[in-house]
Amino acid sequence: MPGNEQESREREYLRLISEKYPTLQAAATEMINLEAILRLPKGTEHFLSDLHGEYEAFCHIMNNCSGVIREKVERLYGKAMTKRERDEFCTFIYYPAAIIAEKKAAGSDDKDWYRVQLHRLVEVCRSVSSKYTRSKVRKALPAYFDYIIDELINMDRDDFDKEAYYGEIFASIIELGRAEQFIYAMTGLIKRLAVDSLHIVGDIYDRGENPDKIMDLLIGHHNADVQWGNHDIQWIGAHMGNEANIFGVIDLSLKYDNADLLEESYGISLRKLTVYAAEQMDDDARFYPVGTDPENAGEEARLTAKMRKAAFLMQLKAEGAIIDRRPEYGMESRNILKSIDFAKGEFCGAKLNGAIFPNVDPRHPLRFTAAEREVAEGLKRSFRSSEKLARHIAFLMRRGSAYKICNNNLIFHGCVPLEPDGSYMNFCGYEGRALLDYCDKTVRRAYSAFRRGGEDEEALDFCYYLWCGRCSPLYGREKLTTFERLFIDDPAWHKEEDNSYYIYCKEKSFCERILRDFGIAGKYSHIINGHVPVRTKLGENPVKADGKLIVIDGGFCKAYHAKTGIAGYTLIYNSHGLRLCAHEPFDSIEKAIEQRSDIHSEVTVFETRQNRLLVRDTDTGRELCMQLEGLKFLMRSFAGSDTFPEGNLPR
């Protein structure tokens, strides 16, 4: 019987593959194509982490491909152009529309200028496309100009007649008024080919002003994925209607004076919260937006503080309700309002600093007032029905995950939670890789119910736990002490102790153990994560455990620049090995265009391959090898036949 089952599977496999390749010639051609692809250099992967809404810096790094485009320009034109000319040309590739607009305003966008730029763009495009098959480049070509670009980047440079022929193509493009569109197509293609795949290792949201614009860029990217961070999961939970996540998102948005993101970008109305807070909340300087001078706070800052305090108190109530109904979380000590002695003004024995808690009933501290319930229901409707937020969260679910294994690298945002003795933390029977798998599946379970118009309360509650639970691999700390930092003066209560993972991960043997548990082994395997900013200015090295761990949170967000001394990292993994780009702070896109400036990046090469990596050595290569074996099996099965008809399947 087992033999019959095996034969049946083989026949079905042959039937499916022969439908796609019905002739000997078709199968042979595909085999030749696959063999050629497998011998090409590995595509370039970029890793970035903890973007935290810093759209302009992220946009510029996407445009300059973390310095890859400048490298190409320097290699091609380092001796033929001055530094100023190279800066001008790089800025032109990054922001072609802005530079063309400048030229038009100055009356210098003449035919000769267009002709020079087109020639240069073709050279750069030829350079970035050199590691790909012509077939792959064709698939990346923009519509309408695909045939022309294919001709230009694959022309024979030694053929004088062809040189004249291509000169005529440029002349025709310019005469027909299509130069601008052609330039946009070429610059877009250059950026696409410079980076084969992009990994965002968590925390797109919170703090910075425009995580929504970052999401739009990622959705438009040809090959991007996301490993969820705790800030991302808070927004995912908020969109699905988790009240603790909703008020957490609002609290952070108001803390960083970023209400416009909610109201204008996502269409989430804060009107009811504003009215409620103005009527019910006291003026509490603890809740002023970051950077506000309490002595000179205006009416807008005071109102924002009232809104934030109202949201924070409702957040504590919503969190307490989850903690009450989920004893398996073990978070009883974080049920803040139930742990306050309102008569003594103490929290777990610590004196509160003159705290006032409007609309909190000491007898029923978790109970929402009627007015609060109305605010909460209105916000829930707004978060659940925001079309733009729905599109962004759908991308995070489609292209995101709790972790990713790619090309011998284990990628996750936070940690694999450990006990102090180095053993795996156990959450409801799950630990290590199984815990991360459980986290991923539970979030998807909540989202599936939401998409069907229902609610899986247990799975949805878990989104709150992932935000701040002690066993959450996305959070990686013992507890979140926002309440203590606001209401207790003693700094001993403010500390957020990191999970033991961040102690053990500095050891090579530990990292190798983690990698083995995830099915990864070999000299060139790594763990890549973010979440904990690397204090570069104090000499901390992001490459740890003899190169087995790379922490790429370099403080992309402005709020962390002073802490890290830099403005983020890009980890670049190409066919030659690994290198890390440490970026200096970026002022603005406007200034970059005006001054023809770039983000200065210090590049550190820390792992070089003795033999250049080929597609054959990647995950994609392994899949292609399987396809190749299938085609060989097909040809062996039909030896002597020119066609592979279904009726001719071997018996």
Reconstruct the topology from this structure.
Layout: H1 2-20, H2 24-38, E1 45-48, H3 55-64, H4 68-77, H5 83-94, H6 96-106, H7 111-128, H8 134-140, H9 146-153, H10 160-175, H11 179-194, E2 197-200, H12 211-220, E3 224-227, H13 230-239, H14 243-255, H15 259-265, H16 271-280, H17 299-325, E4 340-341, E5 346-347, E6 350-351, H18 370-385, H19 387-399, E7 400-401, E8 403-406, E9 409-412, H20 433-451, H21 457-468, H22 482-487, H23 501-504, H24 508-517, E10 526-529, E11 543-544, E12 549-551, H25 561-564, E13 569-574, E14 577-583, H26 589-595, E15 601-608, H27 619-637
Parallel strand pairs: 1-2, 2-3, 3-7, 9-10, 10-12
Antiparallel strand pairs: 1-13, 4-5, 5-6, 8-9, 11-12, 13-14, 14-15
Helix pairs in contact: 2-27, 4-5, 4-7, 5-6, 7-10, 7-11, 12-19, 13-14, 13-19, 13-21, 14-17, 16-17, 20-21
Task: Briefly characterize the structure.
The protein has 651 residues and is an alpha/beta fold.
What would your notes on this structure say?
- Helices cover 51% and strands 9% of the residues.
- With 651 residues, the protein is an alpha/beta fold.
- Strands 7-3-2-1-13-14-15 form a 7-stranded mixed beta sheet.
- Strand 5 and strand 6 (350-351) form a beta hairpin.
- Helix 7 packs parallel to helix 11, helix 13 (230-239) runs antiparallel to helix 21 and helix 16 (271-280) crosses helix 17 (299-325).
- The mean pLDDT is 90.
Structural class: alpha/beta
Give Rg in angstroms: 28 Å
- Treating each run of at least 4 consecutive H or I residues as one helix, how many helices? 27
If strands are numbered along the chain, what order do they take across the biggest sheet? 7-3-2-1-13-14-15
Indicate the low-confidence ranges by residue numbers: none
Count of individual beta strands: 15
